[in-house]
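Journal club prep — side note

Before the paper discussion, L.F. wants everyone to see what a predicted structure for a comparable chain looks like in token form. Sequence:
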Amino acid sequence: MDEKVETPKKKWYLKKRMFVVYAIFVLLLIGSLSGSKSSSSTASGETQQAVPETAITVTASKLTADYKDNEVAADGKYKDKLLEISGTVDTIGKDILDTPYIAFQTDNQYEIVNRVQCMFGKDDIATLSQVTKGQKITLRGTGAGKLGNIEVKGCKIVK
């Protein structure tokens, strides 16, 4: 007698849940790998001295609201521009590539995306160890657009 033993099938919602987890992981990885611009040099090989750029002053809440309202318009206003962002620290951590960051609190405390995430260099770890959750802070960096979170690269603490 041929008896067929049926293997239990995975429930459809478990497959979708794993797909979503993998998709978020890939998006975060791509966002972390995006590089910063390097300085240009003249034909004689000397580097040009950059004129200090005036920073756009914005709160983390305003930046988040602008990206929620219209991501395309917000990119035009903030992407590749020097930003000075103030707000309350929500998270101090490292991403999957061990890059330190500070994320600001949002209006919705349960939101895991759409947060302003300021990326620092590995040489800033000692400075970031002095920052505490709930601290009011102002950071300066270059807007990198939105990929899950609103990213700001090359950040430094202003005050």
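L.F.'s comment for the group: Helices lie at 12-33, 60-69, 71-78, 125-128. Keep this in mind when we get to the figures.
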